[in-house]
Amino acid sequence: MSDTTRRQFIQSTGIATGAAAVAPMLWTSKAHAQWTNVPEKDAKLRVLRWSRFVQGELDAYLANVKKFTEKTGIEVRVDTEGWEDVRPKAAVAANTGAGPDIILSTNDDANLYPDKLLDVTDLCTYLGNKYGGWFPACETYMRPDGKKWIGVPLGASGAIIVYRQSQVKAAGFNSFPKDTDGFLKLFQALHAKGTPGGMALGNATGDSGWTHWLIWAFGGSIVDKNNKVIINSPQTVKALEYARELYKTFIPGTLSWLDPNNNKAFLDNQISVTNNGISIYYAAKNSDNPAVKAIAADIQHAPFPVGPVGVPTEYHLFFNQMIFKYTKYPNAAKEFLRFMMEAEQYDAWLQGGGGYVSHPLAAYAKNPIWTVDPKHTPYRDSAKNMRPSGYAGHLGYASAGAMADFIVSNMVAEAASGSKTPVEAAQRAQKRAERYYKS
């Protein structure tokens, strides 16, 4: 596959910042939420965040940064890196005590170095009271002990099904399947029609997350509620047997796919179904290539189907905001995050992203971005409905390490490809996980 990254081929996605600059929604505060914080004199801040995948999202973010500087006089430098590069840079900053004041990263990276992060309980309490409360998984990620907040939730990139409606219908399906049996039959029918699907099985930070959905859908999980490793289970083996059949229908090459690859394959008409954020839709909708632009009308979105467990088991890519203790300007850093999460800025940012990020606070469900286009709506409740990556245990260093090591994704890839039997893949995953979850 091409080495093209999302930021290289999604050049004009999202809604222009100007279009996002609408009047903020008005929310009813709880208990008259109050915030008192005085930034340090002559403060300067440096922010490291993930690269934009929808141009309008970054445009809106930087517009809000500019507003913050104009209002407070605090200079803010924003650097961007790919997801895979943010994680090691954040770890280096934590270990050396030097680097950006604020880092925006993914999933439970904050649990790799919680003692290095500034306590933001006061800020999260204020925002939660004012904007209808935090969704459960967001609180689980950023408040792992149930007491202290080690970061501020930013939202989640919805990881749901993106499909070509015409090709699904041509394969004999008038609607997208709602259970795993129908899901497999659809992929088999698409393969037989010469319009296969494909999902990432490489070490993709975002798009390999479907493997967690799969294991959960069959009743498996990496640990139980007491953090005992139980990934080597009959339920996991059943899921891996299913993955083996599903993989037979995939386009070749998915074992090495990273986050950009399925986007490119979909927009190149190589696949008809994949899992992704809303960025594929906006890449098509805003493309200068008429052939690619025409795909947008045929794109539809759907949640992942329900497996034998009988309930949704959604995985979505969570985004965090961390302030490091080494910052010289902790009050200024808190003020920056508060400003960015307030309705006047956050509403505009959500709209600039065109639905790329699902909000972590209940009040923002009223944002018009979720209803202005019906193809946005399936992404709205991603942060509300997601399971944390360390399900069903407690989050901490072990869950963060296991996630960063792609244990579940590698296990599914091994079993699906046949390099190991389902039993062998589950056994290997068990041993790998036990290195992190030491008793």
Please trace the helix and strand order, writing H or E for each element: HHEHEHEHHEEHHHHHEHHEEHHEHHHH
By DSSP (H or I, 4+ residues per run), the number of helices equals 19
Q: Strand order across the biggest sheet?
A: 2-1-3-8-4-9
- Indicate the CATH class of the largest domain: Alpha Beta
Q: How many domains in all?
A: 2
Overall geometric form: globular
**Would you tell me the structural class of the helices and strands?**
alpha+beta
For the record, give the distance between the C-alpha atoms at the N and C termini, rounded to a whole number: 41 Å
Mean pLDDT across all residues, rounded? 92
Low-confidence stretches: 1-31
Strand residues, percent: 5-15%
Query: What is the H level of CATH, i.e. the homologous superfamily of the largest domain?
Result: Periplasmic binding protein-like II
Helix content: 40-55%
User: Rg to the nearest angstrom?
Assistant: 21 Å
CATH topology of the largest domain: D-Maltodextrin-Binding Protein, domain 2
Largest sheet: 6 strands, mixed
Number of strands: 9
Q: What would your notes on this structure say?
A:
The protein has 439 residues and is of the alpha+beta class. The chain is 41% helix and 11% strand. The chain contains 19 helices and nine strands. Strand 1, helix 3 and strand 2 form a beta-alpha-beta unit. The chain is globular, with a radius of gyration of 21 Å. The protein starts with 5 loop residues before the first helix and ends with a helix. The model is unreliable at 1-31 (pLDDT under 50).
